[in-house]
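Thread: "does anyone have the structure for this chain?"

Original post by V.I.:
We have the sequence but no experimental structure in hand. Need at least a predicted one for the grant figures.
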Amino acid sequence: MRRMAITLAIDCMGGDHGPRVTVPAAVAFLASHPEAEVILVGLQEAIAGELARLGATGNARLRVRHAAERVEMDDSPALALRSKKNSSMRVAVDLVKSGEAQAAVSAGNTGALMAISRFVLKTLPGIERPAILSLLPNMSGSTYMLDLGANVDCSPENLLQFAIMGATLVSAVEHKDRPSVGLLNIGEEAIKGNEVVKQAGELLRASGLNFQGNVEGDDIYKGKTDVVVCDGFVGNVALKTSEGLAQMLGAFLREEFTRNWMTRAAALFARPVLNAFRRRVDHRRYNGATLIGLRGIVVKSHGSADAFAFERAIERAMDEVKGEVLQRLTQRLGTMEAA
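Reply from O.Q.:
Generated one for you, tokens below.
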């Protein structure tokens, strides 16, 4: 008996590069995932032109859904939601709502994507606010962190819900029975932090999660816990600071290795190590943030992603569908509600 294919809806018009990146990424994804199908959403002529350039017009696992509008990167969430009902972003999310696709992937405007997804899909029972969850590298593997910007002000209950969602997702996609959870704070002691964080710590200790207590900023990259929980203000600042630090270190390395003829010669000998280092910290490998807490899977790619990075975001959506993240979350939340 043939297993039913997993169908993913791709917002082809979102991001800085549109179909020039999203279409090649989708074609490459299909080549390595024979169990998947893709619906490319956007301006039909633009998508068809890219498919013709790639020689992929006859792929039976690839369909095109025309959408006449595009959400611009500077559009307000309200404008995208109310005035662009035929945008590629909206149509992709609608496909998840109707069940024609199991997940949507977009590199478009984050605020608009969250507003549209929340309006169309609604939140899961027991979840007050969706959160943005992403994967970050650490010394021994990777760390999942949320919220990264969707909710600037959070209650202790919101942080508890984020922890439940993060732990459930990690359990599903990483196959860990009891992922460890840490609460981002200014110190490890339970008395540290503001009142919201201290109350969240009390809820987490009583939650039945594998709560390891407070973690500090440097613990994120040490890999102290599988999941790090924080409000969206702190999470977004931490993420952008990390990105800026990585860019600065890369610039410093380039400067030092091009300072004079001796350092340029040294760079030739160090090239294998530098290439390995570059691959290890390549942010493109971790592209794709999940809008978690919705009644459907939506993954947000970085707006400036190239085809390699966007393909990683599609793979992240695929992993969540295969891991049955929504079903696991619904079951987990129902069990906790009953308790």
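V.I.: this helps a lot. The two ends are 39 Å apart (CA to CA).
O.Q.: and The chain has a mean pLDDT of 92.
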